[in-house]
């Protein structure tokens, strides 16, 4: 099994293909360590905070297996036709020889995953005596009275244990022989099953040291411990959101559009929350925080589109909906109790200001600002259609340059995208103290007024 993984990994490296497609932000850090561990034939533990893609990375290992593998048809333990490990498989080959029926298992079926919960038993992982088989006439000394657990059933595959420290210590002991001697023991049976496995696990550092722990003998048997992390670069955060956010909708309104600058706002917001001193750093801020935020942004745009009949395009006015939706995904320090929404709102406004400076620094917006010099006001908000927002401003000077700087392709602009760009510019001017604003939190009608 490990030789199979090694050969396929070397083939991908030689061809210049990514070893783990769909994994974002780990190319220069985690992936090289994982490749070395696989080439060395090591069982491994991925150690990292929640939402760092540990499970996704473990599941992607199946891509390095052969697409199809031969097994004796009907085998519980995926016996190889030329080297069966079970008593049943050995007897079948002895009786049928070349006529032994062979089935083929796809690589996706050669992955077993167990979430380590406190109620997990040795029987779940290794196996136990099956009373039904005993009742059928087999003796207790017959190895075929055993109902095998997940570990032997994953023979010739990859066994993943998620959140390993949550597994009770007495249950972890049952894995010691699996990792070193590659055999199992069940209720006094000395079964010499030469299991062919790659054992991988995930763990959270907090659980690793406090709430639960991996027992020392088990840690010693893992060949590699690999630390994962959140995306280090803003570009990786944006790419991860774009890859994972579920933005397809079935309906007459079409798919919602979340402009690139608003996706960047969410990425910056996520990173700011992650680094905020008010947030419990031991807990971390999952990548699911950013994904859910963008999906909420899109849902707000779809809601407006359903009410106004326009195309669904997210705007700055949809951003406040992100704060209450994301509150439950963040653990705050005890001293910040009661200030959670205030902190998140502040960080979101800061992310908008940073994105504004990143894209529109140096763009002359004085003509847009001059439209307000005579006391003109513009009503915005999530109930205001894009056409109404643009109608209030009339001709917007420099709109083409504004759209270009925000990444809207020439000729692809729509009223919704134009309104999104203009509203973003107005919000940026306000955050840079060049425009006044009355927000929905200070008005009974829930509207936003720039002036």
What oligomeric arrangement do these chains adopt? single chain
**What integer is the average pLDDT?**
88
Largest sheet, in brief, is: 5 strands, parallel
Strand content: 5-15%
Share in helix: 40-55%
Uncertain stretches of 5 or more adjacent residues: none
Q: What do you see in this structure?
A:
Strand 8 (184-186) and strand 9 form a beta hairpin. The chain is built from 20 helices and 14 strands. It folds into 2 domains: 2-65 and 110-227, P-loop containing nucleotide triphosphate hydrolases (Rossmann fold, 3-Layer(aba) Sandwich); 234-450, no CATH class. The strands form 5 sheets. The chain has a 5-stranded parallel sheet. A 3-stranded antiparallel sheet has the order 12-14-13. Strands 2-3 form a two-stranded antiparallel sheet. It is elongated and about 95 Å long. Helix 13 packs antiparallel against helix 14 (287-308). By secondary structure, the protein is α/β, with parallel strands linked by helices. The longest helix is centred in the middle third of the chain and has 22 residues, at 287-308.
């Amino acid at each position: 099994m490990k030789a199979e993984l090694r050969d396929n990994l070397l083939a991908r490296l030689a061809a210049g293909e990514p070893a783990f497609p769909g994994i974002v932000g780990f190319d220069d850090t985690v992936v090289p360590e994982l490749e070395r561990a696989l080439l060395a034939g090591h069982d491994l533990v991925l150690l990292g905070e929640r939402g760092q893609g540990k499970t996704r990375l473990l599941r992607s290992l199946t891509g390095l297996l052969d697409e199809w593998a031969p097994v004796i048809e009907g085998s519980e333990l995926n016996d190889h036709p030329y080297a069966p490990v079970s008593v049943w498989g050995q007897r079948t080959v002895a009786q049928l020889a070349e006529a032994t029926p062979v089935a083929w298992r796809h690589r996706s079926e050669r992955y077993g995953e167990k979430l380590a919960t406190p109620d997990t038993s040795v029987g779940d992982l290794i196996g136990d005596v099956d009373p039904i088989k005993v009742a059928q006439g087999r003796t207790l000394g017959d190895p075929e009275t055993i109902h095998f657990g997940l570990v032997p059933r994953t023979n010739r595959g990859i066994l993943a244990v998620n959140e390993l420290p949550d597994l009770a210590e007495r249950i972890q002991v049952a894995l010691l022989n699996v990792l070193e001697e590659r055999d199992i023991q069940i209720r006094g049976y000395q079964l010499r099953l030469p299991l062919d496995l790659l054992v991988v696990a995930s763990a959270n550092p907090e659980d690793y040291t406090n709430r639960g722990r991996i027992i020392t003998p088990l840690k010693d048997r893992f060949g590699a411990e690999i630390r994962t992390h959140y995306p280090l670069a803003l570009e990786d955060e944006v790419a991860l959101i774009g890859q994972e956010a579920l933005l397809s909708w079935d309906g007459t309104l079409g798919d919602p559009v979340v402009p690139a600058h608003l996706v960047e706002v969410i990425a910056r917001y996520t990173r700011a929350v992650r680094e905020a001193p008010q947030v419990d750093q031991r807990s971390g801020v999952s990548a699911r925080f950013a994904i859910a935020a963008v999906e909420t942004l899109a849902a707000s745009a779809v809601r407006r589109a359903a009410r106004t009949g326009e195309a669904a395009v997210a705007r700055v006015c949809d951003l406040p909906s992100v704060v209450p939706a994301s509150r439950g995904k963040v653990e705050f320090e005890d001293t910040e109790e009661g200030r959670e929404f205030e902190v998140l709102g502040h960080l979101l406004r800061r992310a908008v200001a940073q994105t504004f400076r990143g894209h529109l620094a140096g763009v002359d917006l004085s003509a847009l600002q001059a439209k307000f010099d005579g006391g003109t006001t513009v009503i915005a908000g999530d109930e205001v259609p894009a056409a109404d927002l643009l109608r209030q401003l009339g001709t917007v000077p420099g709109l083409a340059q504004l759209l270009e700087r925000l990444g809207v392709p020439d000729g692809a602009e729509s009223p919704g995208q134009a309104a999104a760009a203009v509203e973003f510019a107005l919000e940026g001017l306000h955050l840079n103290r060049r425009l006044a604003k009355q927000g929905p939190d200070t008005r009974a009608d829930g509207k936003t007024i720039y002036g």
